[in-house]
Amino acid sequence: xxxxxxxxxxxxxxxxxxxxxxxxxxxxxxxxxxxxxxxxxxxxxxxxxxxxxxxxxxxxxxxxxxxxxxxxxxxxxxxxxxxxxxxxxxxxxxxxxxxxxxxxxxxxxxxxxxxxxxxxxxxxxxxxxxxxxxxxxxxxxxxxxxxxxxxxxxxxxxxxxxxxxxxxxxxxxxxxxxxxxxxxxxxxxxxxxxxxxxxxxxxxxxxxxxxxxxxxxxxxxxxxxxxxxxxxxxxxxxxxxxxxxxxxxxxxxxxxxxxxxxxxxxxxxxxxxxxxxxxxxxxxxxxxxxxxxxxxxxxxxxxxxxxxxxxxxxxxxxxxxxxxxxxxxxxxxxxxxxxxxxxxxxxxxxxxxxxxxxxxxxxxxxxxxxxxxxxxxxxxxxxxxxxxxxxxxxxxxxxxxxxxxxxxxxxxxxxxxxxxxxxxxxxxxxxxxxxxxxxxxxxxxxxxxxxxxxxxxxxxxxxxxxxxxxxxxxxxxxxxx
Length: 481
Known about the structure:
About 35% of the residues lie in helices and about 20% in strands. By secondary structure, the chain is an alpha/beta fold. It is globular, with a radius of gyration of 23 Å.
């Protein structure tokens, strides 16, 4: 940014150091508009994207969410990409899973401008190779960053001998029809559904997929909350992982006597579920619920032992159900790049995370909140009981959620926990942090250090609330300075 210039003066402030590392993360690009992500840097990234992935002469997809800076950033990215010889197909206003749909069905690389659940002053880029294959720091994002920094240092993006063209395509209709083909909801019993879009992209996709904006009406009465697309998020942050952001939805479900509540994050690639009593249904329970349906569908198609992916801090009820239903559970580290990679390696039909990301083989191994929500609606709609009863089938254990402790000596704290519990014969594995599992199986817990802060993250689960409380307090005494 130019010296003395306010970050809010212009989106096209020039970075003087040409260091894009503050906005380039492990899986995507995310930064403060006008400060760590600017029109100039985005233009350079568009050029670098084409060069790094060797996309000259190919069509690439460019879209964005409802944040005010997304249209200008989309245009800048396209300028850089076409200068380097790629043809840009503008998808315009899209959810992140619309990009995955388009990348998968059109076999094209692409980018969407979004900062997901981050506050209004942020924006960013999620990039894919053709077929919705993610671009992460391990699969090309670092090279894109370095090339973009060089273009910024040179002061311009050189034009290729043959420059690209631009065109526009709206994929909302195709996306909606595709999702409807994946889950048949037409025979569901009538359901009243409250949907909190959080002023994010679900305000566009929900009426198209679950309503009658494009396709015939389903037997659903949809009560909309915050469907107006507004990247300033005037009602609450579009981050349903934080309990306070679910309060409006919980109250509306009870007020309207609804059967279910669904909350989406800002770019609509995650969904969170509320039962008819206004209580959250855990992402582990949703993972198990959808896994059961996907195992049955794969078995009906002749698949002997369908593979389901779950990360290591998902409830142990998930692998137990998968085995019970004839599937094979595969445990992975936390993080969508790990999940997607293992999904592809194993040919898994489905994968779920505690963070409410849900991945489907029939959706190019990508995550989609809408498709997961449709599976939950189908499971609820094909039986007569309330969601609270259905959910209990998949939540036999009690979970702590993520408990963060500020610890100066992270490795010392982890070592103390290992020493403390190994003395009792507890099995410890180090797939991602350390996971502690006793032989008797009444509880387990995982400790993972944060990559960016002096925090140690504890996730624990037990057979009853008192065992869980005792376990959490004991671990915290051991690890806290």
